[in-house]
Amino acid sequence: MALVIFDYDGVLADTLDDLIHFGQEACNQLGVKHVVTKEDLSNLEVMSFATYGRACGVPESLIDKFVKISLNLFAEKESPPAIFDGLSEVISHLSAHHKLAIVTTNTSQNVHAFLAKHGLDSLVHAVYGVDTPGSKAQKISIARERFVENEEAVFMIGDALSDVRAAKEAGVSSIVVTWGHQSLETLLRGEPDYVVHSPNRLIEVIER
Question: I need a surface site. Which of 56, 105, 109, 156 has the fewest CB within 10 A?
């Protein structure tokens, strides 16, 4: 049995269009004259709403407001985002054999709404969102301390350079997926342990 930790945005949830739209709305509300594009996300050293705001040219004094507006727009969305094709089946399979957790810079509330919509809430053992204190590496360590016994393997699955670096800082294996928000070129700068191009490949890597 392993502990399998997923990032949320760009790994499980197809939120790219929402991120661009909500980032633009937040900029508009704050009076920041910037046209938001995918490139504002794709090259971030650290993937978070705060760094996203900075990439969009939001002044430091308004970053907290940018984050709050963006998270509220996600919470107010009528329907949670879509899940990437094949991941429902992968999560169902992995949950039968392993412990599953989510570590994200989104809110736990938004993640639970997403999991409930897709019938997965009972399969994920814990969600550590932006409302949980600590860095991503610290939250990975919290999950490991809670769920891991007897030196079992721990995998962090992300779509951002910062996910790889958080995994390394926490001393766990890193898996990057190429269907998320950052380019493969950016991801490879972190020297991840595994690169996965399709959801089913996650099962092969974790259960090899």
Answer: 109
Cα–Cα–Cα angle for 133, 190, 127, nearest 5°?
30
Per-position DSSP letters for 46-108, written without gaps between them: S-SHHHHHHHTT--GGGHHHHHHHHHHHHHH-SSPPPBPTTHHHHHHHHHTTSEEEEE-SS-H
Tokens 């760094």 belong to 51
Q: What is the C-alpha to C-alpha distance for residues 96 and 172, in angstroms, rounded to an integer?
A: 21
Each domain of the chain, given as residue ranges in start order, spans: 3-14+80-206, 16-76
| pLDDT mean over 121-135 | 95
Alpha carbon distance 82, 114 (integer Å) = 8
Cβ(71)–Cβ(107) below 8 Å: yes
Q: At 205, phi and psi to the nearest 5?
A: -70, -45
Q: What is the mean pLDDT of residues 142-171?
A: 95
Mean pLDDT on 126-137: 95
Q: What is the pLDDT of residue 51?
A: 92
Tell me the mean pLDDT in the region 157-176: 96
Report the predicted TM-score, pTM, of the whole model to 2 decimal places.
Answer: 0.88
Closest CA to 202 of 167, 173, 181, 182: 173
Task: Say if residue 131's pLDDT is above 80.
Answer: yes
